[in-house]
Write a structure and sequence with these properties.
Blueprint: H1 4-18, H2 22-38, H3 40-47, H4 53-63, H5 69-80, H6 87-102, E1 104-111, H7 117-131, E2 134-141, E3 148-153, E4 156-161, H8 162-175, H9 188-191
Parallel strand pairs: 1-2
Antiparallel strand pairs: 1-3, 3-4
């Protein structure tokens, strides 16, 4: 059985697709979720059962101007069904549906030092050619990886960092069979 966030995200996605407003709804959903996450009082207002549906709808109308009607109707439905706390997971699911529809593949390149734009672009283009998707590349600096790079391509991690290689080496050494230092008993074949 699908979780509620997946059901709501799929419904919003399908209506937005039918009305050719996929990207606009994605952007408005992101902006709304970010606003809620940044303002604890607003989050409490929309999530709390102590405020009526009418008060929450009035709050939506005051908070959001010039939004797509599909998106506004969706938010009102969440309020009516007391599902507003699902909005963050709905956003995640909607984004995943959007990325799949647009054949967008998120790629995160992590390196110990900042990579130049040309290198990051070349990595993205190479992955895009190999997968047949449009790639959205982000670059992250993490000195803890020591050197090399780590790539997160969608949900797959390709770790070619020095830190990872050292960890693998440690595991191999830890699990290695060390030769016995005690003298070997002579076998019957050795005595003959």
């Amino acid at each position: 059985m699908e979780e509620a966030a997946q059901v709501y995200a799929r419904a919003l996605f399908e209506v937005a697709s039918d009305r050719s407003v996929l990207e606009r709804v994605r952007d408005e959903l992101a902006q709304f979720a970010d606003t809620l996450a940044a303002d604890r009082q607003m989050e409490v207002f929309f999530f709390s059962p102590h405020f009526s549906t009418a008060e929450k709808k009035d709050g939506l109308a005051r908070l959001i101007e010039d939004a797509d009607q599909t998106f506004m109707s969706f938010l009102e439905t969440l309020v009516e069904r007391h599902r507003m706390p699902e909005v963050f997971r709905i956003r995640e699911r909607y984004n995943a549906l959007y990325d799949a529809e647009m054949k967008l593949l998120p790629v995160e390149v992590t390196s110990a030092v900042e990579l130049d734009e040309e290198t990051v672009r070349a990595i993205g283009e190479s992955i895009g050619r190999g997968t047949g998707n449009k790639v959205q590349v982000t670059s992250v600096v993490d000195p803890d990886i020591l050197g090399g790079v780590s790539l997160r391509v969608g949900n797959v991690i390709l770790d070619a960092s020095i830190r990872n290689k050292l960890n693998l080496l440690r595991k191999q050494v830890r699990h290695a069979q060390l030769p016995s230092l005690t003298p070997k008993e002579p076998s019957h074949a050795d005595q003959a």
